Amino acid sequence: MRIEFFYWEECPSHDEALARLRAVLREEGLDVPVHVIRVDTDEQAAARQFLGSPTIRINDQDIQPPGENRIGLSCRVYYTEEGRVTPLPTTEMIRRALRAAQPE
Amino acid sequence: MPLAIDSDLIPFALPGTDGATHRTEEFAGAPVFGVIFHCNHCPYAQAWEDRLIAAQRDYAARGVRFVLINANDPAKYPADDFTHMRSRAEEKAYPFPYLFDETEETARAYGATRTPEVFLFDDRGVLRYHGAPDDNYENPAAVQHHYLRDAIDALLEGRMPATAQTKPVGCTIKWR
User: Fold this and answer.
1) In this structure, are residues A13 and A88 in contact, taking their beta carbons and an 8 Å threshold?
2) Residue A64 dihedral angles phi and psi, to the nearest 5°
3) CA of A85: which chain B residue's CA is closest?
4) How do residues B40-54 score in pLDDT, each as one tens digit?
5) Of A74, B18, B35, B40, which alpha carbon lies 20 to 30 A from B99's?
6) Which pairs from B78-85 meet CB under 8 Å and 24+ separation?
7) Smallest Cβ distance to B46: which of A13, A77, A88?
8) How many helices, marked H, and strands, marked E, lie in chain A?
9) What is the ipTM metric for this complex?
10) Closest residue by Cα to residue B104 from B138, B77, B137
């Protein structure tokens, strides 16, 4: 399993998102490294297909469909299970994506 | 540096999505006046938006007034252009003016850096609270400190807010 965590420094709370990702990995018993990738420029954002900070990809799959997010340097919009906007992926969102990425 | 607590309101005249130019003078009679830097695209602004709307509605009968100001460069963030601002204000039925600070002079004068960022003034136009709306952008049900509402309550009761300043949390304002 390959896990990538992309972030843009100007957008707050990426530390919290990374800590949340690592906590869910521990809870799921997954000893998998997280590749933390900082995105600083529009060129890097385009090259990485970066949809905003933070973005988490598991085996190249984004944990949530792009929705209204555009490629570029911005903070990312996530939607909770209840339909609320949030700047951070929820624990459940991460957990579901991790489980979906594991072989049967 | 943001406008310091105890500073006077900085006047502005900015176009609103309602087609009017809104000047600070029109809010002179308000017992509490909130100048809130905001935008469309930012998830922090979106996450707090319904709470700002609710606060304005809850306190409107007591004369409290808010204005929301977007100073982002729409060339960099098209979702923050005036057309999208108008759509957002209509879609969410904003109970406050939504103003466009195209030159960014107002945002710079206030020293605003984030969206959302609240500057709350008393009936004499003196800054009494600056910062975030509350302490939880993720979940309104988990808020423990309602900074904005607590500050409004205090000012309406003739007291100083117990918390005058918090760290604004949100997207950076997108300067030209």
Assistant:
1) yes
2) -145, 140
3) B47
4) 999 999 999 999 999
5) A74
6) B79/A68, B79/B40, B79/B41, B80/B39, B80/B40, B80/B41, B80/B174, B82/B15, B82/B17, B84/B40, B85/B17, B85/B40
7) A77
8) 3, 6
9) 0.93
10) B77
Token digits for B13? 């005249």
Closest CA to B113 of B104, B121, B122: B104
**B138/A11 touch (CB, cutoff 8 Å), yes or no:** no
Q: What's the predicted TM-score (pTM) here?
A: 0.96
Query: A76 — contact with chain B (CB < 8 Å)?
Result: yes
Going along chain B, which residue ranges are E strands? Answer: 13-15, 21-23, 33-37, 65-70, 98-100, 114-115, 117-121, 127-131, 171-172
> Tokens 């995105």 belong to which residue?
A39
Coil, helix or strand at residue B120: strand
Q: pLDDT tens for residues B130-175?
A: 999 999 999 999 999 999 999 999 999 999 999 999 999 999 999 9
- Specify the DSSP class assigned to residue B164: -
Report the Cα–Cα distance between both ends of chain A, in Å, rounded.
13
Q: Are B114 and B173 in contact (CB under 8 A)?
A: yes
CB contact under 8 A, B44 and A77: no
Total residue count of chain A as it appears in this document: 104
If you search the block for the tokens 């965590």, which residue do you land on? Answer: A5
Nearest to A4 by CA among A32, A31, A43: A32
Count the residues in chain B: 176
